[in-house]
UniProtKB/TrEMBL annotation:
It holds the Pfam family Glyco_transf_4. It comes from the Bacteria. Residues 97-171 form the Glycosyltransferase subfamily 4-like N-terminal domain. Residues 183-357 form the Glycosyl transferase family domain. This is Glycosyltransferase involved in cell wall bisynthesis. Keywords: Transferase.
Length: 410
């Protein structure tokens, strides 16, 4: 079956782009991508269609704020002969108020679509509520990744239960590595290591972790806290590296700067898995509960890391029996938990084992099968649209901003 995947796409450095790439590869095991003529529709965050060097799988590019692009994308998809669309949804990816431009695309589609909600807000404003409801109402299925998200879709957005499907966030399917060899290859700091990774921004609560360092270092002087990741591109555009510098300044004020290591890179999944496997404790100190899905947390559990986190929604659900929770903005409590684990290797290793065991059920080959079955069932209850003649189809492609290949449709 032919599927059009609508998302940010690599090489754009974006969590959704990574998720979409993994989803395509995982589903490909069961529903071959190239052989069927599936393709991607990419979202750019500027008006430059050539902003990113996409590969040939991307057949159409939408400039985030250009409403006409969404309408043209719908026309392109309708004439491509696909059986369905899969849309990755996150606020801030699509143009218009609360991403409302996306509705111009979905309402014009003649094929069914599945929408994967990466964020479900508990207290949406009027526009966010309206857009989310419209997307879910028009979808054949609305996919979320946690039980809390299912609850919110039903109670806040009034989406029928039979339209919602929960599929956990997938994680890479890597072998358990040789930790000592990894530490040597990554030039890991000597001693004990704490780790946080992801795009940097004030909503990550990194200040709480840094404020916990003095008490941690007092008991464990060899500790290093590694913050792995670039500053979020939206923040970098408006404020440069001011936020990262503020974290440096806080560490200097607390006399723990030598215990703080910044690695400003967007690492590939292989290296990320290596960092997660090599660290002693992984921290997610998010400052509020309204985090319905965290890919970084899923990756950490999938790699078998010992996770210490604030009790945001996804963490409260995923870490039950597999990690440790501390109160929001409570650096003293964080320090106590970290010191306790670093002083008790057997408890630390037990957490890692529990996480790794559960993470096996989150591997992308397993998650990909769930999506493939969902897509197959969706196609089975919807009549497949007939392909238009090549000449008619090409009349549409001539108006597009990116050159297209006909090979996938021959």
């Amino acid at each position: 079956m032919r599927i059009a995947y609508i998302s940010t796409c690599r090489p754009r450095e974006c969590g959704l782009a990574t998720f979409n790439e993994n989803l395509v590869q995982a589903v490909d095991r069961y529903l071959p991508f190239a052989a069927s003529g599936s393709f991607m529709v990419a979202l750019n965050d500027s008006d430059d269609k050539y902003q990113y060097d996409y590969d040939e799988r991307v057949r159409f590019v939408i400039s985030q704020e250009q409403l006409a692009d969404y309408q043209s994308a719908a026309a392109f998809i309708n004439r491509s002969g696909v059986d369905m669309c899969c849309i990755q949804h996150e606020f801030g990816i699509f143009g218009g108020s609360a991403g409302s431009h996306l509705l111009a695309l979905t309402r014009a589609l003649n094929v069914p679509y599945t929408v994967i909600f990466h964020t479900v807000l508990q207290r949406p404003d009027t526009m966010q509520l309206s857009v989310t409801q419209a997307l879910a109402d028009g979808a054949a299925k609305a996919v979320v990744m946690s039980k809390k998200a299912v609850q919110l879709l039903r109670e806040v957005y009034h989406i029928p239960a039979n339209k919602i499907q929960r599929i956990p966030h997938g994680v890479p399917d890597f072998d358990r590595p040789d930790v000592a060899a990894i530490k040597r290859s990554l030039n890991f700091p000597a001693g004990k290591t704490l780790l946080t990774f992801g795009l940097l921004g004030p909503n990550k609560g990194l200040e709480t972790a840094i404020r916990a360092l003095p008490a941690i270092c007092k008991q464990h002087p060899d500790v290093r806290y590694i913050i792995l990741g670039k500053t979020h591109p939206g923040i970098r555009r408006t404020s440069g590296e001011d936020y990262r510098e503020s974290l440096h300044q806080l560490a200097r004020q607390l006399n723990v700067e030598e215990h703080l290591v910044f690695i400003s890179e967007f690492v590939n999944e292989g290296d990320l898995h290596a960092y997660l496997s090599a660290c002693d404790i992984y921290l997610t100190p998010y400052p509020n509960e309204a985090q319905i899905t965290s890919g970084t947390l899923s990756y950490a559990v999938g790699a078998g890391a010992a996770v210490v986190s604030t009790p945001y929604w996804h963490a409260s659900e995923l870490l039950r029996g597999r990690g440790k929770l501390f109160d929001f903005n409570n650096s003293e409590q964080l320090a106590t938990i970290v010191n306790g684990l670093l002083s008790n290797p057997s408890e630390l290793n037990q957490l890692k084992q529990h996480a790794f065991k559960y993470g096996l059920s989150l591997r992308w080959p397993i998650i990909g099968k769930h999506y493939a079955l969902l897509f197959e069932n969706q196609a089975a209850i919807n009549k497949k649209p007939a392909l238009l003649p090549q000449g008619t189809f090409m009349q549409v492609t001539l108006s597009l901003s990116r050159p297209l290949s006909w090979k996938a449709y021959s």
